[in-house]
Amino acid sequence: MKALVLSGGKGTRLRPLTHTMAKQLVPVANQPILGYVMRHLQEAGIRETGIIVAPETQDEVKKYIGNGQAWDLSVTYIVQEKPLGLAHAVKTAAEFLADDDFVMYLGDNLLGKGIAEAVQKFKSQRPDCMIFLKEVTDPRAFGVAQLDSKGSIVRLVEKPKDPPSNLALVGVYVFSPAIHKAIEQIRPSWRGELEITDAIQALIDKGYQVKGEILDSWWLDTGKKDDFLAANTTVLDEYTVRKIEGKVDEESSVEGRVQIASGAKVTRSTIRGPVVIGRDAVIENSFIGPYSSIGNGSQIKDSVIEHVVILENSMVDGVVRLEDSLIGRNATVKKSGRLRGALRLMIGDHSNVEI
Q1: Domain of 217: which CATH number?
Q2: Single pTM value for the model
Q3: Domain containing 284: what range?
Q4: Are 258 and 349 within one domain?
Q5: How many domains does the chain fold into?
Q6: Are residues 103 and 122 in the same domain?
Q7: What are the residue ranges of helices labelled H in the chain?
Q8: What's the CA gap between 15 and 19, in Å, rounded?
Q9: Quick one: which of 279, 285, 281 has its CA closest to 335?
């Protein structure tokens, strides 16, 4: 079995951050989302992986993933010139996929449990398609699946006004080679894209077996700022353990589950976990509250922050309180004059904000 990871698209909901980086590389708990995806493929025993990349962001993706050796994966990069739909991505990767079964994994999704069990179930039961599903409170915002009593999917509906179920499509699929013929039978949707839901519906209509795999753990779509912060919170809460490798002076207090990477320095500050602080970061005269991630080389001085994601090589200086914010790479947020109240920011790379 192979894997096809989608790391293209424009990431419009996370702009301005994604004007300068692939959304799949935005870090959650200081690890790019794509890193979690690759680890899940490794855990599932998959070794050959194709990665769909966009022309604008392919260099950054290649720099992070490399040849896949860090995850014991063999990687092939496949350029999708324009984001013309998920089924178009499969079509673009047809030569790589050949006649093999494959997992298609959207690179901006986070699953709490991974995919190893589901892949084994697919291999033993041999359906033609398996779709990962999750119960949601408002299915009208998602693609929705309707199942029969045996767990087979009988109908897919995209963002229905009257949902037939509360089971949303997660963004992870397992396919047999039958999907390629189904894609050849569909036409672009009103959006001008080849929709994977249309291809799967074509499988259903032709009598192929399409199964649903309902997740019993969390699933997070990181497409928007608030969703991204929620993902960071969930991952920090679940995976952070206390690990202090950097230097913490005697005037500082580190409370709870806090990770401080090597080369980082904490002076005259309080850090209350769960928090992760990257390599060579500097924390001075500050309070770092729960559910914050500080990227490599970033500096926090004379500030109070909580529930914030700060990417690498950025600075927050003299800010009375910063919360619920996402700060891009090489950005600066500093005090200018008198500040009152809390700030809520989303700042792209190379920004400079005075407050």
Answers
A1: 3.90.550.10
A2: 0.85
A3: 242-354
A4: yes
A5: 2
A6: yes
A7: 33-43, 58-65, 86-92, 94-97, 116-125, 178-185, 196-205, 225-239
A8: 6
A9: 285
- C-alpha angle 145-1-89 in degrees, rounded to nearest 5: 60
Q: Which residue has the tokens 């259903």?
A: 204
**49 and 69 Cβ atoms separated by less than 8 Å:** no
Same domain, 212 and 305: no
What one-character-per-residue DSSP string does 81-125 give? SS---HHHHHHHTHHHHTT--EEEEETTEEESS-SHHHHHHHHHH
Query: What is the full per-residue pLDDT of the chain (355 aa) written as tens digits?
Result: 999 999 876 555 555 555 556 678 888 888 888 999 999 999 999 999 999 998 888 898 999 999 999 999 999 999 998 888 999 999 999 999 999 999 999 988 888 888 999 999 999 999 999 999 998 888 888 889 988 888 789 888 888 888 889 899 988 999 999 999 999 999 988 888 899 999 999 999 999 999 998 988 888 766 566 777 888 898 898 888 899 999 999 999 999 999 999 999 999 999 999 999 999 999 999 999 999 999 999 999 999 999 999 999 999 999 889 998 888 888 888 886 655 566 666 666 666 665 6
* The two three-digit tokens of residue 333, written as one number: 């947020």
Could you tell me if 205 and 339 lie in one domain? Answer: no
Closest CA to 193 of 158, 222, 148: 158
In a shared domain, residues 171 and 119? yes
